Amino acid sequence: MTTISSRAVLIDGEFRPATIRFEDGVIVEVADHTSGDQDYGDLNVLPGLVDTHVHVNQPGRTDWEGFATATAAALAGGSTTIVDMPLNSIPPTISVAALEVKRASASGEISCDVAFWGGIVPGSESEVKGLVAEGVCGFKVFLTDSGVPEFPPVDMATITDLHLDVPLLVHAEWPALIGESGSDYPSYLASRPPEAEAEAIRRLSELGGPVHILHVSSGDGVDAIAAGPSSMTGETCPHYLTFVDADVTGTEFKCAPPIRNEEHRAALWEALQMGTLGMVVSDHSPSPSTLKEGDFASAWGGVASVQLRLPATWHGAATRDIGLESVTHWLSAAPAALAGLGRTKGSIEVGKDADFAVFDPDGATTVSAETLLQRHPS
Question: Around 259, how many Cα atoms within 13 Å sit in the side-chain half-sphere?
Answer without folding.
Answer: 24
